Amino acid sequence: MIETFELTKTFKAEDIETVALRNVSLKVEKGDFIAVMGPSGCGKTTLLNILGMIDNITAGKYLFFGQEVTQLFEKQKTELRKRNIGFVFQNFNLIEELTVYENIELPLLYLGWKRKERKNRVEDVINQMSISHRKNLFPVQLSGGQQQRVAVARAVVANPPLLLADEPTGNLDSMHGEDVMLMLNELNKKGTTIIMVTHSRRDASYSRRVVHLFDGQIINENFNSII
Amino acid sequence: MLGNYFKIGTRVLLRQKSYALLNIIGLAIGIAVFTFIFLYIQSEIRYDRQWSDYKNIYRVTSEYNVDGKIEKIALTPFRLAEDFRKEFPEVVSSTNMFFTDPSDINDISSVTYEGEVFEIPDITLSEQNFFKIFDYPFLEGNPDSMLSEPNTMVISSEISQEIFGDESAIGKKLSTVVREYTVVGVFEKKCWPSHHNFDAIVSESSLDTAGLVRLKKDWYWLICYTYVKLNDTVNIEDFAFKFNGYAEKGRLESSKEDNMEIEGYFINKFEQVSNVHFNTQLQYDSPSNVDVTFLYIFGIIAAFILLTASINYINLATARSLRRAKEIGIRKVIGATKSQLVFQYISESVILTFFSFILAMSVVEFLMPKFNQLVGKELTLVGSIFSGEGIIFGIILFIMIFILALIGGSFPAFVLTSFNPASVIKGNYFISGKFGRQHFSAGLLRRFLVTVQYVVSIGIIISTFIVYAQMDFLKSHDLGFEEENIIVINTPHDTTFKHRISNFLTALGEDNSILEVSSALNVPGYTGGKMLFYVGDTSKQNIQALNYYGVGNNYFELLRAPLLKGRHFTNSPSEDTTRNFIINEAADDFLKLDNAVGTSLNLAYEDNLDRGKIIGVVKNFNFSSLHEDVEPLVFILDSKKARYVLVKFEDGKKDNAISHIRKVWEETNKGSFLHYTLLETKLENLYKGDKKMLSLFIYFSVFVIFISSLGLYGLSSFLIQQRTKEIGIRRILGGSEIQIMIMLAKVYLRVVMIAGLIASVIVYFLMTSWLNTFAYHITINGWYFVAGILITFLIATTTVLIRSFKVVHESPSVSLNYSG
Question: Quick one: closest CA in A to B1, which residue?
Answer without folding.
Answer: A109
